Amino acid sequence: MNNAVAGFSKLSKKEKINWIAKEYFSTPEEALNIIRNYWNSDEKLQQLHDEFIENTISNLYIPLGVAPNFLINGKYKTIPMAIEESSVVAAASKAAKFWSTRGGFKTTIIDTEKIGQVHFTYSGDVEKLQSFFQEIKPKFFFDTQSITKNMQQRGGGILDIQLKDKRSLLNNYFQLHATFETKDSMGANFINSCLEQFASTLKEEFQDSALFSDEESLKVIMSILSNYVPNCVVRAEVSCPIEDLTEKHIQNPQEFAERFVQAVQIAEVEPFRAVTHNKGIMNGVDAVVLATGNDFRAIEAGVHAYASKNGQYSSLSHAKIEDGIFTFWLEIPLALGTVGGLTSLHPLVKLCLEILQKPSARELMEITAVAGLAQNFAALRSLTTTGIQEGHMKMHLNNIINQFEATSEERHLIKSHFKKTAVSHSAVVEFIENLRK
Q1: What pLDDT shows up at residue 434?
Q2: pLDDT tens-digit map of 365-402
Q3: Active-site hit among 50, 85, 143, 258
Q4: Which of 196, 295, 363, 366 is an active site residue?
Q5: Quick check: is 295 catalytic?
Q6: Whole-structure pTM value
Q7: How many CB atoms sit inside 10 A of residue 36's CB?
Q8: Residue 279: active-site member
Q9: Which is catalytic among the residues 279, 318, 350, 394?
Q10: Same structural domain for residues 179 and 220?
Q11: Which residues cross the membrane (predicted)?
């Protein structure tokens, strides 16, 4: 690309695609074919997808799978998972089946509080500001009545507003720190609308107040929700007598349980391990979050901040052996919604929520946490028994076969060969090359 493009957003979809094909590809028609091949044949459905974001040219598909046999609080669930990584859905399904005969998963909602902040600077007498805040605090609730009315009817709304002195971090820095309950909505738009009204009220009341001198100033910097929700937390756990852990790959359940607990303890104290450990949890969490139309970037950011809440990045999950009982659990912040946004627009998201039997936001928190715990259990079971690569590389075999566009006959021969042979990229490539000679 030699020059900037002017007015790109005003071009039609066809014009945008043609420009990209001509600007970046030596064979524009080939690029155009790839882009068009991923359009939905239903024009109305494609238009719906086009309007989710800006400058849409095509669709990037991610596989949608399901993991059955999840026994959660005594009820069976089939969990939809949208993810491109092989072995994740299989591992979750295997863990679900394992625990379905050992009492299943138990969950507890610890809290559902969400947070938003108005960030501002103030130069003046802090005692005056504190007195002023207490005086006008009821006005914040009054001025947002039109915004909070519907939410209050559903049992939600503004829980509290606090003035926080942050001058130890930045000169003259203060916050209005507000907490919210948003029920089945994730609540981003609701929270941000409330915060912007708080900011407006704060500025207007400050200007009208006789309490402050001309030398004292207050400036609002920004108003925005926080994706760090340490008080919107769900706990998921599994437990059983150690002897009940016995299965094909666990001949000595006591030894397995001890190794498993040690593996978790390593992730609790070693950040290099904790990051990969938690990534495994997020394989399950993100797949459910994406399948249900929620914001996995917000979840990721909040979860990893939570993993660092004690000053060092650490494991989200924990394990123990006590009185002959093996217990494995995690506590994770999940601000999720089942109404609004893509949940009411995307046909597959609506289908996924139907598969989950139309859960409330609290129920979706529980299901999502269970998916993360199941994924973590599956990974740690492999790591402490057969090793992670055996199962992963067998699942990865399909990707390698597809990369080389194997015929159905070649595919059969390759899979038969690697049933008893270790899978590696180089071994598969060598076998295919020999096969084609």
Answers
A1: 85
A2: 999 999 999 999 999 999 998 765 555 566 667 778 88
A3: 85
A4: 295
A5: yes
A6: 0.88
A7: 11
A8: yes
A9: 279
A10: yes
A11: none
Query: Domain of 332?
Result: 65-111+232-386
For residue 60, is it within any domain?
Answer: no
- Rg, the chain, Cα only: 27
Per the annotation, the verdict on 85 as an active-site residue is: yes
CATH number of the domain within which 193 lies: 3.30.70.420
> Is residue 331 in a domain?
yes
The pLDDT value recorded for residue 153 is 96
Domain-located, residue 193 = yes
The tens digit of pLDDT for each residue in 265-315 reads 999 999 999 999 999 999 999 999 999 999 999 999 999 999 999 999 999
pLDDT value at position 413?
A: 85
Active site annotation includes 392: yes
